[in-house]
Specification:
Blueprint: E1 3-8, E2 26-32, E3 37-41, E4 46-50, E5 59-66, H1 67-76, E6 84-89, E7 98-103, E8 113-114, E9 116-117, E10 123-124
Antiparallel strand pairs: 1-5, 2-5, 3-4, 3-8, 6-7, 9-10
C-alpha cells in the first residue's frame, strides 16, 4: 500500500481534537515550513495559505499516512468541495516530497494570522 508524507499544522496534530484520525499513521518528527506560508484562525480550525511576501515558518508535524487514511483526511478537509487543496509544501530540511492542506476560500478580513496553532486552539504569532 502506498504511503504519503503529510505536514499537519492544525486539528490533526498531537493533542488536538482530530488527532484520533492519525491512529493508523506513523509520526516522523516535528518540523516547520520554509517561510512561505501563513496560518489564519478560522474559528474552530486554522487554514494555511501560501504567502510569498510576508510568509512565516509554520510549525507542525510530519506524518506518514496510508491511502485509506489519506482518503479519510481529504474528506475531513473537504478537498472535493474546494475548501482545502492537498499540495506539495516546502519543509525546512526535508529532502522528500511533503504534502499539506492549503486553504482555498478567501480569508476573512479580520482573521488573526500566525505561525503555530496552539493545543488550546488559536494562534501563536511569534516566528
Amino acid at each position: 500500500m502506498s504511503k504519503t508524507i503529510l505536514f499537519l499544522y492544525g486539528t490533526l496534530r498531537t493533542g488536538q481534537r482530530n488527532h484520533r484520525l492519525m491512529s493508523n499513521s506513523r509520526f516522523i518528527c516535528k518540523v516547520k515550513t520554509l517561510p512561505h506560508y501563513r496560518l489564519y484562525d478560522l474559528g474552530d480550525y486554522p487554514g494555511m495559505v501560501r504567502d510569498e511576501q510576508n510568509g512565516l515558518a509554520v510549525r507542525g508535524e510530519m506524518w506518514e499516512v496510508d491511502a485509506t487514511t489519506l482518503m479519510m483526511l481529504d474528506a475531513l478537509e473537504d478537498v472535493d468541495d474546494g475548501l482545502y487543496e492537498r499540495v506539495l509544501v516546502e519543509i525546512d530540511h526535508a529532502a522528500v516530497g511533503v504534502e499539506s492542506y492549503l486553504y482555498l476560500p478567501p480569508i476573512p478580513a479580520d482573521a488573526a494570522s500566525g505561525a503555530e496553532w496552539e493545543a488550546s486552539g488559536g494562534l501563536r504569532n511569534e516566528e
